[in-house]
Write a structure and sequence with these properties.
By secondary structure, this protein is mainly α. It contains six helices and no strands. The longest helix has 30 residues, at 83-112.
Length: 135
C-alpha cells in the first residue's frame, strides 16, 4: 500500500506523470496508444506548468484531476485484492500532496525563481514516478 500512497503523492505534484510512468514501464507494448497519449499529456502538463497564466493545482479542476489520477495510479500499484484500498489511498494522498507541493513550490519560487523551482519539481516527480512504477 505504500507504493499506492507514494504514487498518489506524485499525482499531487504532477497529475499525468504517474499514469505516463506506469504506461511506459508496465503496459507500453500492450497499449501503445495509451502509453503515447499519457506521455504527451504529461509533457503538456510539464510545459503548461511553466506558463504565467497556468491555473493553481489546488483549484477545483486541478484537485479533481489529481484525485482521479491518484486513484488510478494507486489502484495500479496495489495488489489485485487491494485495488479499492489502493485507489482510495492514492486519491487521498494526491489531494494532500497537491496542497503541500503547492506551498513548497511557492516558497521555492520566491527563493530560486519559477523556472528553476519548476524544473526541480518536474525532475523529482518524474524520477519518483518511474522508480515507483518499476518497483
Amino acid at each position: 500500500m505504500l507504493r499506492s500512497i507514494l504514487m498518489g503523492a506524485v499525482a499531487g505534484a504532477r497529475a499525468m506523470t504517474p499514469l505516463a510512468a506506469l504506461a511506459a514501464t508496465r503496459g507500453g507494448g500492450r497499449a501503445p496508444v495509451f502509453s503515447a497519449g499519457s506521455m504527451m499529456f504529461a509533457a503538456g502538463e510539464i510545459a503548461g506548468d511553466k506558463l504565467r497564466n497556468a491555473p493553481d493545482r489546488i483549484g477545483a479542476a486541478g484537485i479533481a484531476g489529481r484525485l482521479l489520477s491518484g486513484a488510478i495510479a494507486g489502484a495500479a500499484c496495489a495488489h489485485r485484492d487491494d485495488r479499492v484500498a489502493g485507489a482510495l489511498l492514492g486519491a487521498a494522498s494526491a489531494v494532500v500532496a497537491s496542497h503541500l507541493t503547492f506551498r513548497l513550490r511557492k516558497a521555492a519560487t520566491r527563493r530560486w525563481g519559477a523556472t528553476a523551482s519548476g524544473v526541480i519539481e518536474d525532475g523529482l516527480a518524474i524520477a519518483s514516478a518511474v522508480a515507483l512504477a518499476r518497483g
